[in-house]
Amino acid sequence: MNDDLTEMRSGADPNPMKEVHRTEHIANLLKQVTGTCITMAALEGWNHEELPTAFNSIAERMTAAASDNPERSAKQLQDAKDRYVFVREAGAPTT
Q1: Terminal-to-terminal C-alpha distance of the chain
Q2: What pTM was computed for the model?
Q3: What is the pLDDT of residues 39-91, one digit of tens each?
């Protein structure tokens, strides 16, 4: 709530700033996921040239894990959506 009041006091439109924060957050998460996947590839003995194949293998395993327990993955997705709420204009895309 304190953040909301600061936004109101500044007189600036908070939506563009929140979009920048959202974009930055996505970029940071991508760096973290990439680093984690590279670490997994190293632990599994993949070579640098094989990283695309390693990434596909990891993605397939993540897809299988989500499919094997759809209730859990659906709950995790909803929890993340609830946790990361970014203000948007009505009708704006969420991607």
Answers
A1: 25
A2: 0.69
A3: 999 999 999 999 999 999 999 999 999 999 999 999 999 999 888 776 555 55
- CA 76 distance to own-chain centroid: 12
The answer to whether 40 and 58 have CB atoms below 8 angstroms apart is yes
How far, in Å, CA of 67 to CA of 76, rounded?
13
The CB density around residue 1, as the number of other CB atoms within 10 Å, is 5
User: What is the rounded distance in angstroms from the CA atom of residue 69 to the CA atom of residue 31?
Assistant: 26
What's the CA gap between 65 and 73, in Å, rounded?
A: 8
DSSP one-letter code for 48: G
Q: Are 51 and 41 in contact (CB under 8 A)?
A: yes
**What span, in angstroms and rounded, lies between the C-alpha atoms of 65 and 58?**
10
Query: By the 8 A CB rule, do 41 and 54 touch?
Result: yes
